[in-house]
What does this fold into?
Amino acid sequence: MQESLEAIGEALTENGKVVVTGCLGVKKELIKDVHPSVLAITGPHDTPAVMRAVHAYFGKMRPQPHNPYVDLVPPQGIKLTPAHYAYLKISEGCNHRCTFCIIPSMRGDLVSRPIAEVMLEAENLVKAGVKELLVISQDTSAYGVDVKYRTGFVGGRPMKTRMVDLCQALGQLGIWVRLHYVYPYPHVDEVIPLMAEGKILPYLDVPFQHAAPRILKLMKRPASAEKVLERIRAWRASCPEIAIRSTFIVGFPGETEADFSLLLQFLEQAQLDRVGCFAYSPVDGAAANDLPDAVPAALKEERRARFMAAQEKISAVKLQAKIGRTVEVLVDEPGTGRSKADAPEIDGVVRFRGGEAGRFAKVLINRADEHDLYGELQ
Ligand code: SF4
It folds into this structure.
């Protein structure tokens, strides 16, 4: 919250004319108190209200059909990532009710974007030079559940609003396609063969959050650790190259040392490739705030450090095993690229001399640490 308010302040200083939109927009009074000079405040997805505000203040800037000769803004819109990768948001909202999360109360239940619209955006991004699409949402594997997997038309051909169908179609665009925030529903197994065939990246970002049954129940997460381990084994059997990423919360209210040990045990057994870990912090309005037995801050931090130390060992061994191999990378900037196992900003990188941003390259790996690989451009 504080960060968002600071960002609004910075935008006001830089530009002076600011419309606030998104989740924070539901706290209108708070924003007005701190920044009385913002032009308008709207809630999430309220495009009409944003457009009304824009029209009211910038009357001449009415949207016109795209004119390639005069428009500076490309038809696919402006994105804030480098030119060679882009996030593709396929839905908004979530049907789960994890007790630590307030997204459903702010953004509502799952609303999937029509498949034709998603594919059009993906194709336009590829035409604009994007080499990697990062598929995101609050719950990627639930794509289409809200519209009962309705059939849409893409290039005149019928296509279901469904994650597997979407992955198949994206897999034909000839670029890297990376899946994020995949809840481990059974049908996720169907995308693993697409990874094994090289259609989409062998990378799965599945937020497990915890492994102790008691804590998962308190979090209202339906998964069970044994089943998850079985699934991971099966995914690796059908696509040995797969990199599995996950995030976890430690120090959730009621987490005992025994629960935490179960989590460390799971980590050891799962041998995940990439892991993020947060010490639990209460969010205004989250149901978990009413749970008893809060874990003291120092203990939460200590558990986070122990968890990360355990994962660093696992990661170091996994990365060491890549020494001597030649890996394909997408160069983010000269000297730094990412392999198929590395999502931008959250995973490690591959370092080398040279290279051109936005190009694919091959790197022979000769060194590794806990997070990154190092090598020679081939
Ligand atoms: S944590 Fe993720 S799955 Fe759970 S309610 Fe929030 S958005 Fe949904």
